[in-house]
Structures are given as C-alpha cells and as structure tokens.
Amino acid sequence: MRFSFIFVCALTLLACNQTPPPIAPSDLKDFNLNGNVKTTEEYSVKPDDSLNTSETRSTYYHYFNPEGYIDSSVRKIEPLGYRETTIYERDEFNYNIQTSKVDQEGKSTFQLQKTFSNGKISNSEFTSAGLKRSADYEYDEQDSLIKTISYNNEGEIIETTDYTYETLGRTLISKVKFYDKNELLIKSEVSEFNPDNYARLNTYTVYENSKPSYSTYRKVSCNENKDPIKIESSSPMNVKSFRTYQYTYDDQNNWTTKIEFIDGVKTSTTYRTIEYYSK
Q1: Does position 264 have pLDDT exceeding 70, yes or no?
Q2: Does residue 28 contact residue 68 with C-beta atoms inside 8 Å?
Q3: CA distance 91 to 235
Q4: Measured distance CA(74)–CA(72) in Å, rounded
Q5: Among 97, 131, 171, 254, which residue has the least CB neighbours within 10 Å?
Q6: Could you tell me which residues come within 8 angstroms of residue 144 by beta carbon, excluding any fewer than 6 positions away?
Q7: Paired sense of beta strands 120-128 and 108-117, if any
Q8: In terms of C-beta density within 10 A (0-12 exposed, 13-18 middle, 19 or more buried), how is residue 101 classed?
C-alpha cells in the first residue's frame, strides 16, 4: 500500500511539473484576416453573369469566435439548395482536434481527427466515403517536421514523406520527398519563401522508376497586405499561365472585392462581406 501511495504521489508531482503546451495560434492568420473578425461571406461571379442567379453559385461562410478561432464553415450552392457544414472541435489549448463535414441531411461526408503532443500534431486519421487513412508525424530536436508516415485501412504503409530545411540569405527553403510503399521516390516539392515580400516559389517533380519524368512550378507574388497579385504556373507540357488579381480593401486592410485575370482576360469577381466583433 505504501509503495502504491508513493507511486501515485510521484506521478502527481510529475504531471504538475510538466510544462503545458503553447496556446494554438489564431486561425485569422491562416485566412490572412486582420481585426476582430466575426464572420465572412464570400462568392464569385463570372464577367458575363453579372450577379445573375440563374447559374449555380457557391457561397462560403466562415464563423470565428472572439479569440480568433474558426468554429464552423458553411458552403451553400444556389439555386440547388445544397448545404455542407464543417464543424471544428478544439482541446483546452485551442488546437483543432476534430474537423467534421455534414451535408444538408446531417450525414457525415468527412471527418479528420488529430492528436497533438506539446503543441505539435503527432497523429491524424481521416474518414471520407468509407475510405480511411492515418498518418504519424516525426520531428527533430528543433521541433521541425521531418517525416510523415501514411497508412491505409489495414495499417499498411502506403506513403512516406521526408522534409528538410535550409536558408539562402533571407529565403527559407523546404524540400519534401514522397515515397511509395516500396520506398520508391514518386514526387518531390521544393518551396522557397521570402519573408520580406511574401514571395513564394514551388517546384514540383514527378518521378517514374525513381527518375524525374516532368516538373511544374508555381510562383506567387504578393502585395503589402500579403495577398497574391500575380501567380505564374506551368503545366506538365511546360505551358505557362499567368493569373493576376486586383483588390479593394476595407479600413482593416481586409479585401472585400477580388478581380481575377487569367492571361490578361478577366475571369471572375469575388465579393466578400466581413462582420467584426464590436470593441
């Protein structure tokens, strides 16, 4: 009995002395939103549509709590009346531990569960249309992600991903390699990010028999508000495409109108309404 009592006390002291994980960062940063945002409503129209509701249109709603974490999202398709709701559940440190999507009849269409350890994701599992996948995550001593291992329904490894990092001046470079279940290299991605002007260059390579088959790239230039103003990309046949964007902003420097051009031709206008919490 005495040994049991001492053992329980030791466990209690150990638990009390553990450093709690950091609080999860606000989701507003992921959405590139400023201020105390409460809700956003967003939809796009084509130039020849001009707000005409005769064609199907998707409208997206995002709902944030006062701390800046997203509680739910809704996608509506008009005039079909289709509605899909995404619900985010969080732990005591505001980490998103479960994401669930349900259709208008309340039927589950997607579920993602995540396990966190000291502020870092250690395992994830998702279910969609009867398909189940899971993944484990590994980190180095600097808490940088260095490997993910993906599994199928039977727990067999289907893909392994390795991550490496380096810097070139102010440019941050990450390199990702994807391997199949036979440990053959199938694709890679190199990302270069400049924190001074938010420019990003992603290069993708697909392999056959572990040898490069073709490569594509995506180059993003941003304005001072961190919003993309030009995206240059290439196809597997090395056909280049250019997308440019024009914005109007509110007094919080959040865009409310975004106009897209592809190769110089106007293709869509996106309207966004933002509601803020009162101060």
Answers
A1: yes
A2: yes
A3: 41
A4: 7
A5: 131
A6: 163, 165
A7: antiparallel
A8: middle
